[in-house]
Amino acid sequence: MNRQAVILAAGKGTRMKSKLHKVLHPVCGKPMIQHVIDNIKASGVTEIVTVVGYGAEEVKRALQSETAFSMQTEQLGTAHAVRMAEDVLKDKTGTTIVICGDTPLISEETLKQFIHHHETTGAKATILTAKTNHPFGYGRIVRNEHGSVERIVEEKDANIEEKLINEISSGTFCFDNTLLFELLHEVDNDNAQGEYYLPDVIKLLVARGELVEAYVTEDFDETLGINDRYNLAIAEKIMKLRINREHLLNGVTIVDPENTYIGADVQIGADTIIEPGVMLKGKTIIGENVFIGANSIITDSEIKQGASIKQSVITESFVDEETTVGPFAQLRPGSDLGKQVKIGNFVEVKKARLHDEAKVSHLSYIGDAEIGERTNIGCGSITVNYDGKNKFKTVVGKDAFIGCNSNLVAPVEIGDYSFIAAGSTITDSVPESSLALGRARQTTKEGYYKK
Ligand code: UD1
Ligand code: CA
């Protein structure tokens, strides 16, 4: 059967009190609407139309070619919003899923089961519902004495009895596409908010004698709609624990899952250990058997098997097998560390390739540089890469020894097997197997105190 989806994202999201569009607020590092799109795609939907209106340009820029777009210039309600997709979808057959851009917690599994239920019962509409003791704000499912769905009543239209109903609409529906676009024209705006409500399609189908189903999910948390930042914080927490649980079950040790922040798109290998306060963000990939010490922040980076990261910040960088970083090191974008490299405390690396077994153990800055295999950079040494206008490169060969507190003034090259005496300022390149001294000779004046 054909499956298409309409995602609603045209509303202003007033309750967020934000300049950023509501559906672009991240949940575990990914815009909430992107969670919706990813899950919809994974559940076998081939065509997605996102209805945009308020902040349309911002949403389109963020989503680009992820979906098609329809414009709703005036926000007259959710039924009106779905009608905006009519031009694109009206001639389709099969199932149309309508879902709100502000319900990122509805899982791929739940969506699959929900769509399966709709398609196997042959219903013309199915509502994804859940039960809760705190239904405030949601549309309530009104059932007749036989337990069949009759209609949905919105919070603002509900009478005292209806407000007590504990089954809510998640705002997610499956519809028979043809009937949906036919009945949307019959929805009126005669209600407390003066809006065209999508949920009203349900009572129109029931009036026509069509089969309407409700699929009740076990887990109310999934249906959480994010209307304000309190909801956002709760969604973040639920999603965080869901992500962490998945990694735990895949063999990753997370010492304190409540206080570990792993982005939705991060991958982690088995037997990796993650201490409290760690944040893994963006498209980070962590290998097997890696140690990530407390409070490390790793963004869009790859850390290979057996590496050890202690209390460090790593951004857009690569760390190869069995390399150690930190404590208190920073790898800025473009750091590319080989195998068994050692980066010690208070070392900053930027846009630099360090070959296997290179060591920078203490208090250094290595930027715009290439450091050869097994080369040792002594404590306090720095690459002087910037003249106030331009950046220059430093190249150090293999098995070299850079004495403590040296300045390598780029552009400069130090050959393989060379030594730089401690405290040198090196402005000229040094050929291989040489010793370079670049410092003033010491003079000592004896008896100076008495004078
Ligand atoms: C809506 C449902 C409610 C359901 C709840 C689930 C309606 C009338 N109410 O209420 O039954 O329990 O979601 O979270 O459908 N939107 C548009 N254009 C509009 C109005 C809204 O695109 O003209 C979009 C919003 O951007 C949002 C979604 O539709 O993504 C839902 O709108 P919102 O105002 O959040 O509705 P709720 O009050 O949460
Ligand atoms: Ca909502």
Radius of gyration: 30 Å
The CATH architecture assignment of the largest domain turns out to be Alpha-Beta Complex
Which whole number gives the mean pLDDT?
A: 97
The largest pleated sheet is described as: 14 strands, parallel
- Roughly how many Å apart are the termini? 100 Å
Rough outline: elongated
Number of strands: 39
Separate helix tally: 9
Percent of residues in helices: 10-25%
Unreliable stretches, pLDDT < 50, 5 or more residues? Answer: none
Q: How many discrete structural domains? A: 2
Looking at CATH, which topology of the largest domain would you report? Spore Coat Polysaccharide Biosynthesis Protein SpsA, Chain A
Reading off the top of the CATH hierarchy, the class of the largest domain is best stated as Alpha Beta
What percentage of amino acids are in beta strands? 25-35%
| CATH-level-4 superfamily name of the largest domain | Spore Coat Polysaccharide Biosynthesis Protein SpsA, Chain A
Which molecules other than protein and nucleic acid are bound?
uridine-diphosphate-N-acetylglucosamine, calcium ion
The secondary structure category is: alpha/beta
Characterization of the model:
The structure is a single chain. By secondary structure, the chain is α/β, with parallel strands linked by helices. It has 2 domains: 3-223, Spore Coat Polysaccharide Biosynthesis Protein SpsA, Chain A; 243-436, Hexapeptide repeat proteins (UDP N-Acetylglucosamine Acyltransferase, domain 1, 3 Solenoid). 18% of the residues lie in helices and 30% in strands. The strands form 6 sheets. Strands 13, 14, 16, 17, 19, 20, 22, 23, 25, 26, 28, 30, 33 and 36 form a 14-stranded parallel β-sheet that branches. An 11-stranded parallel β-sheet has the order 12-15-18-21-24-27-29-31-34-37-39, covered by helices on one side. The protein has a 7-stranded mixed β-sheet with strand order 5-4-1-6-10-7-11. Strand 2 (26-27) and strand 3 form a beta hairpin. The protein is elongated. It binds uridine-diphosphate-N-acetylglucosamine (UD1) and calcium ion. Uridine-diphosphate-N-acetylglucosamine is lined by residues 8-11, 51, 72, 75-78, 80-81, 100-103, 138-139, 152, 154, 168-171, 197-199, 225, 227. Residues 8-11, 51, 72, 75-78, 80-81, 100-103, 138-139, 152, 154, 168-171, 197-199, 225, 227 line the site of uridine-diphosphate-N-acetylglucosamine (UD1).
